[in-house]
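Minutes, project check-in

Agenda point 3 was the complex the collaborators sent over. CS summarized: four entities, 404 residues total, and the question is how they sit relative to each other. Sequences were read into the notes so everyone works from the same version.
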Amino acid sequence: MRRLSHYLRALEGFDRNGGGTVSSEELASKGHTTAAQVRKDLSHFGSFGKRGLGYGVSELVDRLRAILGVDRAWRVVLVGAGRIGSALFEYPDFKARGYDCVAVLDSDPHKIGAKWGNTTIRDTAELEAVVVREQIDLVVLAVPAVAAQEVTDRAVRAGIKGILNFAPVRLKVPAQVPVEDVNLVMELEALSFRITRGGASE
Amino acid sequence: MRRLSHYLRALEGFDRNGGGTVSSEELASKGHTTAAQVRKDLSHFGSFGKRGLGYGVSELVDRLRAILGVDRAWRVVLVGAGRIGSALFEYPDFKARGYDCVAVLDSDPHKIGAKWGNTTIRDTAELEAVVVREQIDLVVLAVPAVAAQEVTDRAVRAGIKGILNFAPVRLKVPAQVPVEDVNLVMELEALSFRITRGGASE
DNA sequence: TTGTGTGAATCCCTTCACAGCG
DNA sequence: CGCTGTGAAGGGATTCACACAA
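CS then shared the predicted structure for the full assembly.
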């Protein structure tokens, strides 16, 4: 659920200590939904929340982190050390949120062996070995479209748990392996669509 | 509508020339929806499609491009010449799809004046002037979270038509200015959420 | 016969409204 | 009282099913 991430983000504005509380109203005002929506969303996962008071900030943060699965560290391998890969690798929020990029792979001989910080770029051929040895959970796919499916197949066979895909292709994966697609062109098209047709409602 | 972009993408696999046709069934199989869904989506915008035959590939492409507003060129300014900005600037698909990055701005004195290809990075202070002089349609916001709202306000006042926002903040904009948010951490959280709870249904 | 276009049925998500607990 | 939790109502989107055109 995307909104849960928003709630978690919104809660960072509040003090975790001191037993403070937030109402569904307050959470709704950030994160642009309604109070009823917030309550429904949260009630799906149990009923923590004090009637007449609101939700305990600290408890709610813990709950949301558990629900979203960010109460642990995720081990990530980045495949594709191009521009997008480099941007992602440096993105400070990833590590801060528990996504730990422990390996970078590329198939370009000119890049293999180079160092990013103290991470050495290795050959994509080592993918399976890296996944197993480094106990990788997630693959961030930042390779050209033509290579994406092959890398995916190999990662899946090696036992990966999920894929964040930047390649503009629909990956074929077994049902139990979730894929999230990020397609920048489609985002721009969504913009021009909304501009072209007036109604800018999000 | 996000699915329309998918249809357009799927159609690239077919030959535009030669008066070929596609059925809703074929379009559905790529783009992972149902045939009924495809027909409903398209019927919203008129009924072009020959019963018993399918849709003319060439005509459908034209229609979709018109609907999505990609039958014209969009003039884009990139604000923020960091890692993400650089990745976006080099992203070959943007220009190919009609999104033309005609200016790059940054507020870091070390970057101002540098050249990317034959585009010179200019001072973010020039934003308003650039928007007007270069007849900019869209802003791609790749600045730190703290700077995002200020840049947004200025771009909106200068008459921008839409914003693609990479900063992890919810921008306040007038209702008629559409914003598309890209939040990489939220994508990863969506992944870990789905992994944590089993059901990987997209 | 084939595959679109579309009302009708269905499902799911959001909003409403309020009972009930602190 | 104030605010949560939740059944009920409402609305929008998906799916079904079939008349109809090529």
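Noted in discussion: Residues 145-157 of chain A form the longest helix (13 residues).
Follow-up: revisit at the next meeting once the mutant set is ready.
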